[in-house]
Amino acid sequence: MPTFVVRIRDSQGKYRKETLIAESLVEARTNLRQQGFVVQDIKQSQGFKFDIQKIKNSFVKVSVKDRAVFSRQFAALTNAGVAIVRSLGVLSEQCSNPKLKKSLLDISADVQNGVNLSDAMRKHPECFDGLYVSMVQAGEVGGVLDEVLNRLAKLLEDVARLQNQIKSAMAYPMVVVFLATAIFIGMTVFLIPIFAKIFIELGTELPPLTQFMLWISEVLRSWRLLVVFAIVIGGNIAYKQYYKTPIGRQTIDRISLKVPLFGELIQKSSVARFSRTFGALTRSGVPILTCLEIVRDTSGNQVIANAIDAARTDIQQGGVISLALQREKVFPSMAIQMISIGEETGELDSMLMKVADFYEDEVEQAVKSLTSILEPVMIVVLGGMVGTILLSMYLPMFKVFDKLG
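Now predict its structure.
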């Protein structure tokens, strides 16, 4: 008899996965319903099967841009009156991301079987996070799914634009650091030993700087380089493990907010993301406590997440958001004042959008300022590295010239 894998919801509203044996899919579904379970998903177990496509999809990521394009197209089809199942089928055919395409096909099959769109999307967290699912659910309940999808598209497009600004700002320093490291290693490994050998044959005593660079060259050309790699890899692993702990994440995120230049950029981008996400959720009709729970999980910084969680606790006890955020001393005073005005006037969603617009502009200006500062710094660093190598090669020449004189 075939084995079926099912996802069910019990009488207490809890979801879980089970396996059962039945003659057919209909019999398995009937048996579960007779036991009082609500069947969310059911499929026949295939046993062990080597699926190369599934392995490939596991390495593919669904970007913010992919979700934004999908949301915009889905909203257009929904607004035109196209059925959800057909819309998902059309979008899956033209989707270039294999992981998103597979998820859309599964979601379409679930919707055909009577599952709500939001519940079907909730099964694919790698493609649709809690923010996305909550807004879609609010759109289904309110009958304004096309409007919610348009808001989602706008939200995701703004997030993608902000990420691209930061990435483009960091691209130049990263390229310069890579080139500087490559030049430094190349000159240290190949040039310095040749010059050092010539000076030693001439009986010239090498100055301390040249001896130090020669020692670095020997390390890079010997087994000791493996020790350096092991230390770097071990340090990276230790950092990641420490960051996974609550204390480590709290400590590192707090330090990151105080780093010169970068700390202010991290704070402003986090405030912009918080305001944009919170405003979009509130405008879509998501309950405010659920909104705060979602933006807490998507904040990207544990210190800011703790401040949002404190605000959520205060609201449960009858408090207001602005006072709770002000108490944590994480959000800028201007953002808190604007949120406070939004609470007083009953236009919190509109005020949050204005806060997001303001701080996204601030992030853009901060990125431009950071780029203008980093460019000369990188040039000085690159020149200093090359100059140090050249100086270590030319210093012994002065002693050679003194002997010849």
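The two ends are 99 Å apart (CA to CA).
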